[in-house]
Write a structure and sequence with these properties.
about 160 residues, 3-stranded antiparallel beta sheet, single chain, RPA_C, Replication protein A C-terminal domain-containing protein, about 35% helix, mainly alpha
């Protein structure tokens, strides 16, 4: 039978069990053991979402930022880039500048895809604004293709004009 997975090493679990016993409680009551008391309880459908998910993080080692250790995000303080809530962006002068810069850079590279930073330099726009415009050209207007994983090691997405334009 496979042992139940739990955060922390053997010494941490033993120390938590000793602390519980000193406080006059059973270690399993505190969730300091790997036993069945750590299993999620079945909850009614009328139970609020917060109560249902509260047991998921029980027994996990929390970091200072509130997340669990081993988080995949390198820098939790910087917000993730998101294009949601922007609505449909009309084709503007910035879109034209970025598209022209993409076509020129793509010709310079023999028809291969081009990184957003190079397009931004050619268009004379900040990198973040260029990425947003490239997103619009790709998803909204459909004139640009975004190529993921085109490099080894991966250096980020490359962009190219859609074939047949």
């Amino acid at each position: 039978m496979v042992r139940k997975k739990m955060e922390g090493d053997e010494e941490q679990r033993r120390a938590a069990a000793r602390d519980a016993e000193r406080a006059g409680e059973q270690p399993s009551d505190r969730g300091a053991t790997t036993g069945g008391s750590k299993q999620r309880a079945h909850m009614r459908t009328s139970t609020p979402h917060e109560e249902k998910t509260a047991s998921l993080h029980r027994g996990k080692q929390q970091t200072a930022t509130g997340g669990t250790q081993g988080s995949s995000r390198a820098d939790a303080s910087s917000p993730a880039r998101s294009f949601t809530g922007r609505g449909r962006q009309d084709y503007s002068e910035a879109h034209e500048r970025v598209f022209e810069a993409l076509v020129t850079a793509q010709e310079k590279h023999g028809g291969e895809g081009v990184h957003a930073e190079e397009i931004a330099r050619s268009a004379g726009l900040p990198a973040e604004e260029t990425r947003a415009v490239l997103h619009d050209l790709s998803d909204t207007h459909g004139v640009v293709s975004e190529l993921q994983g085109a490099d080894t090691p991966d250096l980020g997405p490359r962009y190219e004009t859609r074939p047949g334009l």
